[in-house]
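Z., the sequence and structure:
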Amino acid sequence: MAREGGRVRRRGQGELEEQVLGVLREADAPVTAAWVQQRLGGDLAHTTVVTILTRLLAKDVVARERQGRSFLWTPTADVARLAALRMRRLLDGERDREAVLASFVTALPPGDERLLRALLDAAGTGQPDSTDTTGRRTED
């Protein structure tokens, strides 16, 4: 739970994982769970931070190495990869993949549709991506 204007609000699904990963990516070196907990602020229990780090480890977006009785944690991916993993998990849980993908693509705004098309074209040719964040092709 997070505080917002004196009230407690429930975090969105995956929000805490994103926050933990974001804090890890700010670190200059591998860090402890206590370091992550301190940077997150608020009233998160140490066990909650360790649980989130362990979930991120299972998703292969962080690595850990033992140091004494604790672990040092390092990010191995960014928040975009974490979001992509969530999207993939949702897609894998659906029976009619084609319908889900078709619905997703037809609901995209034109800029995102162009960007997705360019990314798929680049993946199909093995060429590096040559689009900017707005979906426009850039000069090679």
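The longest strand covers residues 62-67. The helical segments are 15-26, 33-40, 46-58, 79-92, 97-106, 110-125.

Let me know what you think.
H.
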